[in-house]
């Protein structure tokens, strides 16, 4: 393996040596608009600087567009100024020869027109104008810059303060001790299903993301107390935006690596009408890793493919129609019957063959209309679908590990569709007041089939449902800019689930931001949030009962009350410190009705297994509290770093009345990231990045071996739930790469060395039915991920 890596670096050096010292240029363009009204601004001044030295300037035209021609490749700063608005500066924008750079500035009104607000490209300002606290803009370039992110937006989010990324096998987003179930995924203003390959019903993560970072614009990520337009979430929101294609020039990207091959293209549909497209396709198997004998948690070959598309059609100066879609399919056959000794499966069970496939897709159309210079409205309609299909065959072996017999023991097909409608109106009332009101209506189309016969001769049914239900979410939110330094946001979100009479909520939200002297900001946020239970849990029935006896059909929403206080200090033009302290109280949490049970739905939502709930009631509680900080040096003089840390506690109370650690209570997590870039020639740059993650270990319980032997599966001792913790998690990642500009192409060759120190981190403590004992299941080991990318 070391020899292969050495050969790779020789190839990179040879590739660099073929470059010349010619200087290449590229165009930088975009538009400028009012952040609240989306009104395009005419006559704004755009300035490009390098190290505070003015290089060139231009103005927006009658359509609010601007263009810088013949900008040298490299990193540059771009500022936008206009009378009556605060100035924005985007720093360290990477310009390459392969693709034009598109920058879209959204300016905020300045009440007194006295100050400049300088916001850097890699500083976490927020796109959503109603956000006051616990929010950060997700920069698309970060998915490629930071080591260990695997170009996955969800894994990138694990670098942020308050987010735990201590599971190598999945990209679950665990925020402030909350279950990943609490995450809301949105795309282009509409809630979407779990956008991950190999996803399990009821989860929001998976091993590989369906989302292609090459099709994303900058997006918002919220960790708490989010604005009123977001609902059906108790934890966090990932508000993704697809980018528009280049409306003037055809461009493309090709990438090949260990994780697969992909193609992306964008360009004008009609230059006359300024319409555009962007499309990407990816196909992957992990044959390469198996061929190199690199452990990936299974000896089976995962296969997956996905696609993303966006078409943008301006139909007048007042209206735009957009069509968008993402979709992915994945399958894997985990075959243990072929082994002559016990395998170690991270993604499956050691006693059965498993055949698994999943599909997910979203197709939508939106229309945005400018009503006036101070108001616009948007309506989105989408059709969505997700499906999981699985079959298990139990393998019975003798003492010599020979196969005695096999038996089909499980088969299920869970399919859920969704017809979604979203509408909102945004109105700016003078320089100080902005109002946004809207409604989201989702019709769920549910088909669930599941049967088992593990301990019986005949098949027994657990799910057999075919029906529909609506989730209706109206909201209104208001922003009051009292002064340039004091901003108040308030709103109300409500939601109704028509499946039963118990799922209704009324949720007030409030945020305050105060800008102090010496580049300091205080922020405060609070609000009530609620969420549906995982859809399949409503329709479960005991195998011995009939399908119309669904004993959890009347579950209500889980609810969460958030309090957050934040402090932000800009130490100098390239260094920033931020800290937040928070408290979350969760209530109406589903727990079991049987006495002495420690079960809480707050412990569900990760891993690759569904759960099979006994009769549940909304009587459980939980709480999360902690403090977190971020120290971030933005890219300057070729160097950047970010250090994030969180100290937290996460508790849940079951029907036994005892408050216990949740599955996600690691107590602490620390991330350290840094990177350095060095120009080799006028058109070649060497890049490197490193990351260290150190966090609390996994929680686990004792197993009752006597009951487990009778039952044939692990049965925990209720009083011991999550009383134990594995050793701390530690992982170091290193990324090395070369960027090379040629006349019309931009090349990038990189290798991401995940867990370069080969640390053995424990994933879980599992029960072995064959030996009636427990064993440690370990996470992934060393994982080298190579890719070559070319922009053209």
Number of strands: 43
Helix residue percentage: under 10%
3D shape: globular
State mean pLDDT (0 to 100 scale): 89
Enumerate how many helices there are, as a single number. Answer: 5
Instruction: Characterize the biggest β-sheet.
Output: 22 strands, antiparallel, barrel
Distance between the termini: 32 Å
* Poorly predicted runs: 114-124
Overall SS class? mainly beta
Note the beta-strand portion.
Answer: over 45%
Keywords:
single chain, 792 residues, mainly beta, five-stranded mixed β-sheet
Account of the 3D structure:
By secondary structure, the chain is mainly beta. It is built from five helices and 43 strands. The strands form eight sheets. It has a 22-stranded antiparallel beta barrel. The protein has a five-stranded mixed sheet with strand order 8-15-16-11-12, with no helix packed on it. Helix content is 5%, strand content 56%. It is globular, with a radius of gyration of 26 Å.
What's the layout of helices and strands?
Layout (H helix, E strand, L loop, with lengths): L1 H16 L7 E10 L10 E6 L2 E7 L5 E8 L1 E8 L6 E8 L5 E7 L27 E4 L3 H4 L7 H5 L5 E2 L9 E2 L7 E5 L2 E2 L4 E2 L10 E2 L6 E7 L13 E7 L8 E7 L2 E11 L4 E11 L1 H5 L11 E12 L4 E16 L17 E21 L2 E23 L5 E27 L3 E20 L7 E24 L2 E12 L6 E13 L3 E12 L26 E15 L2 E18 L23 E21 L2 E15 L5 E3 L6 E12 L4 E12 L3 E2 L4 H7 L12 E2 L3 E13 L4 E9 L7 E7 L4 E6 L4 E9 L1
Parallel strand pairs: 1-7, 11-16
Antiparallel strand pairs: 1-4, 2-3, 2-5, 5-6, 8-15, 9-10, 11-12, 13-14, 15-16, 17-18, 17-43, 18-19, 19-20, 20-21, 21-22, 22-23, 23-24, 24-25, 25-26, 26-27, 27-28, 28-29, 29-30, 30-31, 31-32, 32-33, 33-34, 33-35, 35-36, 36-39, 37-38, 39-40, 40-43, 41-42
């Amino acid at each position: 393996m070391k020899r292969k890596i050495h050969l790779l670096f020789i190839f990179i050096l040879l590739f660099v040596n073929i470059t010349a010292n010619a200087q290449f240029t590229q165009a930088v363009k975009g538009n400028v608009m009012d952040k609240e009204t989306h009104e395009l601004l005419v006559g704004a001044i755009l300035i490009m600087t390098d190290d505070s030295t003015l290089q060139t300037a231009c103005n927006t035209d009658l359509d609010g567009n601007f263009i810088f021609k013949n900008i040298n490749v490299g990193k540059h700063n771009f500022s936008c100024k206009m009378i009556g608005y605060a100035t924005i500066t985007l720093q360290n924008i990477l310009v390459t020869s392969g693709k034009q750079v598109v920058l879209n500035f959204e300016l905020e009104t300045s009440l007194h027109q006295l100050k400049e607000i300088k916001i850097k490209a890699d500083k976490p300002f927020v796109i959503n104008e109603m956000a006051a606290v616990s929010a950060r803009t997700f920069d698309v370039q970060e998915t490629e810059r930071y080591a260990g992110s695997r170009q996955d937006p969800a894994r990138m989010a694990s670098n942020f303060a308050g987010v735990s990324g201590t599971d190598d096998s999945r990209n679950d987003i665990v925020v402030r001790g909350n279950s990943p179930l609490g995450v809301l995924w949105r795309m282009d203003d509409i809630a979407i299903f779990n956008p991950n390959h190999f996803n399990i019903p009821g989860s929001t993560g998976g091993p590989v993301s369906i989302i292609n970072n090459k099709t994303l614009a900058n997006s918002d990520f919220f960790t708490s107390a989010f604005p009123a337009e977001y609902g059906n979430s108790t934890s966090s929101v990932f508000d993704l935006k697809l980018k528009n294609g280049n409306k003037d020039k055809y461009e493309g990207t090709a990438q090949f690596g260990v994780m697969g091959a992909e193609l992306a293209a964008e360009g004008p549909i009609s230059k006359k009408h300024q319409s555009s497209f962007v499309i990407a396709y990816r196909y992957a198997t992990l044959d390469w890793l198996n061929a190199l004998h690199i452990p990936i948690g299974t000896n089976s070959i995962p296969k997956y493919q996905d696609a993303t598309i966006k078409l943008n059609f301006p139909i007048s100066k007042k209206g735009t129609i957009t069509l968008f879609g993402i979709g992915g399919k994945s399958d894997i056959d985990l075959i243990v019957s072929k082994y002559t000794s016990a395998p170690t499966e991270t993604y499956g069970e050691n006693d059965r063959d498993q055949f698994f496939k999943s599909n997910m897709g979203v197709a939508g159309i939106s229309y945005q209309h400018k009503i006036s210079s101070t108001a616009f409205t948007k309506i989105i309609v989408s059709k969505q679908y997700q499906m999981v299909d699985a079959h298990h065959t139990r393998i019975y072996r003798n003492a010599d590990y020979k196969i005695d017999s096999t038996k089909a023991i499980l088969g299920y097909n869970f399919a859920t569709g969704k017809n979604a409608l979203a509408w909102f109106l945004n109105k700016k009332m003078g320089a100080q007041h902005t109002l946004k009101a809207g409604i989201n209506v989702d019709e769920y189309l549910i088909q669930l089939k599941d049967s088992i016969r593990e301990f019986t001769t005949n098949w027994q049914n657990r799910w057999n449902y075919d029906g529909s239900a609506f989730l209706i979410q109206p909201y209104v939110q208001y922003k009051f800019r009292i002064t340039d330094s004091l901003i108040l946001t308030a709103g109300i979100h409500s939601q109704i689930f028509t499946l039963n009479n118990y799922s209704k909520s009324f949720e007030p939200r409030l945020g305050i931001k105060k800008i102090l002297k010496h580049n300091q900001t205080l922020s405060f946020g609070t609000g009530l949030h609620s969420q549906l239970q995982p859809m399949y849990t409503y329709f479960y029935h005991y195998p011995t009962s009939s399908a119309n006896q669904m004993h959890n059909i009347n579950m209500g929403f889980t609810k969460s009350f958030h309090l957050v206080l934040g402090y932000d200090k800009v130490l100098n033009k390239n260094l920033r410190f931020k800290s937040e302290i928070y408290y979350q109280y969760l209530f109406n949490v589903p727990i079991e009705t049987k006495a002495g049970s420690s079960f809480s739905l707050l412990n569900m939502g990760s891993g690759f297994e569904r759960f099979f709930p006994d009769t549940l009631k909304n009587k459980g509680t939980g709480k999360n509290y902690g403090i977190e900080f971020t120290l971030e040096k933005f890219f300057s003089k070729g160097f950047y770093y970010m250090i994030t840390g969180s100290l937290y506690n996460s508790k849940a109370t079951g029907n036994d009345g005892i408050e216990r650690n949740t599955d996600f209570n690691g107590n602490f997590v620390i991330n350290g990231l840094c990177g350095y870039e060095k120009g080799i020639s006028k058109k070649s740059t060497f890049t490197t990045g490193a990351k260290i993650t150190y966090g609390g270990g996994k929680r686990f319980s004792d197993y009752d071996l006597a009951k487990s032997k009778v039952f044939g599966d692990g049965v925990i001792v209720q009083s011991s739930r999550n009383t134990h913790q594995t050793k701390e998690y530690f992982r170091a990642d290193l990324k090395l790469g070369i960027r090379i500009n040629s006349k019309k192409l931009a090349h990038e060759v990189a290798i991401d060395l995940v867990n370069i120190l080969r640390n053995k981190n424990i994933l879980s403590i599992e029960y072995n039915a064959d030996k009636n004992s427990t064993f440690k299941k370990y996470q992934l080991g060393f994982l080298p991920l190579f890719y070559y990318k070319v922009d053209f």
